Task: structure prediction
Amino acid sequence: MDDMWVRLAAGATARITGPMKFRLVLQPAMAIFFAVRSGIADARSGRSPYFWTLASDPSQRAALLEEGWKDVGKVFILAVALDVVYQFIVSRHVNAVDAFMVAVVLAIVPYLILRGLVTRFVRRRIHNGVR
Result:
């Protein structure tokens, strides 16, 4: 288990300076775009912040996961595919766990964090009468 974390840390620094580093900006930017769009829609419809509801309300969890996957699923799959290509270019072998972890960090995490923050921000602005 410790070896996996060491490998991921070393791979992370190599990914920042290596080939295809544009994806480290592009993929989170795409996830942020979808998070902002969905967060605004959540605020306008009066829904609770996404991640909070996902974590605290089991009755809505399946529907929220499906909705979130529709937003960020393509970004996630693209992140996995590009990391597989990166791994093959750099080391001539592919580690699926690494590709999956990188995709989670580049696509899922920004989406989860920002969708709720945008919902709160927009709701506050709507409540204060600012449009």
About this structure: The chain has one domain: 2-127. Residues 2-127 form one domain. The chain has five helices and no strands.
